Amino acid sequence: MISRRAVNGGLAVLAALALAGPAFAQSAADKAVEAAKQYSGTTITIVWEAGLQSLDPLNFSGPKWKELTGIDVKVVEVPTAEMFTKILQEHRAGTGAYDALNVIPSWMSDLARAGALEPLDAYVDKYGYRDELQEIAPVYRDNQMKVGDTIYGFPDDGDVFVFYYRKDILEENGLKVPTTWAEFAETAQKLTDKYAPEMYGAAFFRDAPYAQFMFQERFRVEGGKFFDPETMKATVNSEAGVKAFTEMRAENKFMPPGVETWGFVENLAAFLAGDTAMTLSWPPYGRWAAGYGTDQEALNWVPKSTVAGKVGYALPPGGHPQLAAGFSLSVSASSKNKEAAYLFIQWLNSKDISLQRVQLPYALRDPFRASHFESAEYKSRWPEAPEYLSALQQGAVSGLLDLSLIQTDKYEEALRQGISRLWAGEDPKAILDDVAAQWDAVTEKVGVEEQKAAYADWAGKPNAYPSK
Hints:
This protein is mostly helical. The chain contains 23 helices and 12 strands.
């Protein structure tokens, strides 16, 4: 029989829990705001990619954080190509000029080993953020958050290549969405033969910094591995590499003249104008093709879409899209405001706030959480938005991680130079033999055993190579 004392004690516990309920129910965003109020009146500095990306903290999240916490956010805009160097230089100088950082995930290994990034696990536990981190799509959470077993950044941008195609054109010609690169070449050639020069079957950005990501993807889809894991000798010049290089150059023949020099904007303009029937790029192409947000002043450079309502979204041929670049949020190890900086990035990255941020038309942050892909609000943004989010969610399962080593930029630079030589007409095998030799020289300079350990850490991640 239960005693009256036990009943009364249980009721007291329930009453106490009821009174404390709001605290227990606090979201990660709310926890960060409440804790950050103790730093009201201070200023934190965050490094952000110059251009559209920086409009997020400048126009939206920075002012909102100031309103909620009293903390000012100073945004330091840095061109993407200079961000890694500036972050590393600031760390070595020990100036404490940066508090929070945007880090491209492939840099994280380098920066963490250099001691430039603050380990975040203690903060995550202190402010109860682990549960919400689990809601980040696994491809980002499991590949772009840790070095070894330590959290150094919060995946904050669902960058993934998406295949865009004209539904009306393929349907009119009785063609299916290509699922292999051979089918893609056949389909694109048929369309070019029929419609050129008014419209070409396809086009891609071919400028080397972009095209090297496309090569990384296709090389692995063909079964290629970047290195021999035992010797760390580069194997980028294998049969898979030569096949990818050869096919990439052959595809230019059914693309618009001069495509070899196209970058992000040239390729976008051609697709939105209806000059090409298929392309591949990051998620913003899909939003802008639908006309979403392009009436805003910040996007007045985006050409008016003539293809709204006619665009379909799919995984690229091969089914394993590159997780090209993207960003994670980190804290500078030399910051004098580490806790305030951490609380700001927890709030930015949280389920509640990130859903608002990925819907900003101008800020270029792309969906990266399950709740983003499933959001009824986001799905209502334009008629095809549910199909768009579905394609992004598929990419967040099968996507391929950018190569990440010590001094990754030196390996990428050799590959970029190789792609420029490819467009100039040099022999694919000879180019890749030279790239492999340059990679081996970098490995020797870094130290074979040290680089071998870094590669093993990267290659052991779930999305380094396609799953069988």
